[in-house]
Design brief:
The complex is a heterodimer of chains A (222) and B (308). Chain A is an alpha/beta fold and 222 residues long. Chain A has two domains: 117 residues, 3-Layer(aba) Sandwich (Rossmann fold), CATH 3.40.50; 75 residues, no CATH class. Helices cover 29% and strands 23% of the residues of chain A. In chain A, the strands form three sheets. In chain A, strands 3-2-4-5 form a four-stranded parallel β-sheet, with helices on both faces. In chain A, a hairpin with a 2-residue loop joins strand 6 and strand 7. The longest helix of chain A is centred in the N-terminal third of the chain and has 17 residues. The two termini of chain A are 29 Å apart. Chain B is 40% helix and 15% strand. Chain B contains eleven helices and eight strands. In chain B, helix 2 links the parallel strand 1 and strand 2. Classes of the chains: A alpha/beta (222), B alpha/beta (308). Chains A and B meet through helix 8 of A and helix 5 and helix 6 of B. The complex binds iron/sulfur cluster (2 copies). The site of one iron/sulfur cluster (SF4) has 10 residues of chain A, from helix 7.
Chain lengths: 222, 308
């Protein structure tokens, strides 16, 4: 899923300062599952803002709603009336949802309430970890399922740097060293010889470094 | 001969090599380099010039290497892949060799969050093993990465890399060295060694794989300056292991005698390392302590340095 954190209230306050009628929109998919921008969190932000409005005499009118997915037109379009009534819309979705709502209703400004951080998973209660960086050329077959791009702080392709410390990454003692995990998994599977393969310098064209990406499937087009 | 550098000639002749290290200044004062160089000249065969080590901004490694060369000391230009993509790397190598630099150490580089620009964006376009292959291709085939046409000129470089026998997983370290050898490395400088037992096991694995026949390994040493530094390094520096008895030995001498004791330990270590099969030299990292290099190499009976 896509993981994100809600922005600090001070930043949100500042963004909303010029407006009066504010529509908060949550998203019921990833960002809701990571407990950042679903129905519940929209409710919490709405009451926070109402409180601030009262204390600081802001005169804000806050309305709230949560849709299934902000990254799909069919879920966004029914919001037409609510969009029209608002001065500004604040989205609690990931960066994709925030942008797509603004694309569907280009006459409105859509502000972000979330800092989108990574593609990850909920490894245990209250903890999410990054797993993939969407690099466009997956090498998980060569690393037995542990991503060296997203999980090694230096994105190394050919084994650990010299900074591995007791299985932890040199960058942070709370972070597992990806190559330590890869080595152990290879060992467990009796495939240590995989380490001898020199993975050559890759092309980054498939990642963001080749410019923004787009996917076309003609067979799916009308 | 790959590059005809002093270091290469010494190692190829089978002499026991000594390399030193010099950190460029956090500024552009040439005097700092001159001052440090005077202690190294004639006492070591080549001197590593670090490349923004620990991700702290310093004078560029290429520029400082050239300054050192002009002072009559042979540099080993370090290059990290943290700050350069393949365009900048190849361009810098062409420039460095045009300036007369002949030794290069290929490194990943410490992560930028350690340094004085922690908010920087890093590069890591290629990794250190891919860098070794890139330099070898430039040198032996005169070809840039993924290109077939030949470049003009000669990129004569004696290719080095680092090895850390003390970073886990220990079992992987000899394999990683084998990988660097397969990529085309000519010499290796190790992380500073305090735990002889682990190092000897590492070297045994390396020799069992026959790697000592294919690459020159220089054992890294760093003299301990004080009991405090010893303790700090033992507890806080990732990838460095200092055995308890050394921590105790440094703590057991009077404060004003600590430096002397540290040097004594260092000399003993050099003598012990010399006896290990596959060790072809030492890499003496007396960081911000260059002034003590002459006495260390002299006490370790490594003088005079061979003239080749
Ligand atoms: S290799 Fe690329 S695509 Fe595969 S998991 Fe890692 S970042 Fe994602
Ligand atoms: S310690 Fe491990 S995860 Fe961290 S940068 Fe080095 S190899 Fe990558």
């Amino acid at each position: 899923m896509i993981v994100g954190d809600r922005k600090p209230i001070e930043e949100i306050k500042e963004m909303l300062a010029p407006y009066k009628k504010i529509l908060l929109v949550g998203c019921g998919t990833c960002i809701s599952v990571c407990m950042t921008g679903g129905e519940k969190e929209v409710g919490i932000l709405a009451s926070e803002l109402r409180m601030i409005s009262e204390l600081e005499k802001k005169d804000w009118e806050i309305s709230e709603t949560t849709i299934q997915r902000q990254c799909e037109r069919e879920y966004i379009e029914p919001l037409k009336e609510q969009f029209e009534k608002a001065d500004v819309v604040m989205s609690m979705a990931c960066g994709v949802g925030i942008q797509y709502m603004a694309e569907v209703f280009p006459e409105k400004i859509v502000l972000p309430a979330v800092n989108t951080t990574f593609y990850g998973t909920n490894v245990k209660e209250g903890e999410w970890q990054e797993r993939c960086a969407g690099c466009g050329d997956c090498v998980l077959d060569k690393t037995l399922g542990i991503c060296p791009v997203a999980r090694c702080s230096k994105g190394l392709y050919n084994g650990p740097c010299g900074g591995t410390d007791n299985g932890k990454c040199e960058v942070n003692k709370d972070l597992d060293c990806a190559w330590y995990l890869i080595y152990n998994r290879m060992k467990e599977h009796g495939k240590l010889d995989m380490l001898d393969e020199i993975i050559p310098a890759r092309s980054w064209k498939t990642s963001l470094h080749g410019g923004p990406r787009k996917r076309v499937r003609e067979d799916a087009q009308k | 001969m790959k590059a005809n550098s002093n270091l290469e000639k010494i190692l190829e002749r089978g002499e026991f090599a000594v390399t030193g290290e010099l950190g460029p200044p956090k500024g552009n004062d040439v005097e700092v380099i001159k001052k440090k160089a005077q202690f190294l000249k004639g006492n070591v065969d080549a001197v590593n010039i670090t490349d923004n080590q620990t991700a702290v901004v310093r004078m560029s490694s290429i520029a400082a290497s050239k300054l050192l060369l002009d002072l009559g000391v042979e540099p080993v230009m370090q290059m990290v892949v943290r700050d350069r993509n393949r365009i900048a790397i190849q361009s810098d190598i062409l420039g460095a060799t045009a300036l007369g630099l002949k030794n290069m150490l290929c490194l990943s580089g410490d992560h930028q969050t350690f340094g004085n620009q922690p908010d920087a964006k890093n590069v890591f376009d290629i990794d250190s093993i891919q860098l070794i292959g890139l330099v070898k291709r430039l040198r032996d085939e005169k070809k840039m990465l993924n290109l077939e046409d030949e470049i003009e000129g000669d990129v004569g470089i004696f290719i080095g890399a680092a090895a850390n026998p003390f970073a886990e997983p220990f079992g992987f370290r000899p394999l990683r060295l084998r990988k660097k050898v397969a990529a085309g490395v000519n010499f290796i400088q190790t992380q500073c060694i305090y735990d002889m037992k682990i190092f000897k096991e590492f070297m045994k694995a390396v020799c069992d794989m026959g790697l000592d026949q294919k690459v020159h390994i220089l054992a890294g040493v760093t003299p301990l300056k004080s009991a405090g530094m010893t303790k700090y390094m033992a507890n806080n520096v990732p990838g460095i292991i200092i055995p308890e008895e050394l921590v105790k030995r440094m703590a057991g001498v009077a404060k004003e005698k600590a430096a002397e004791e540290g040097i004594k330990i260092c000399v003993e270590q050099i003598q012990e390392l010399r006896e290990i099969k596959g060790v072809h030299g030492i890499h003496l990292m007396a960081i911000e302590w260059e002034s003590r290099v002459p006495e260390i190499v002299s006490q370790a009976k490594l003088l005079p340095r061979p003239v080749v």
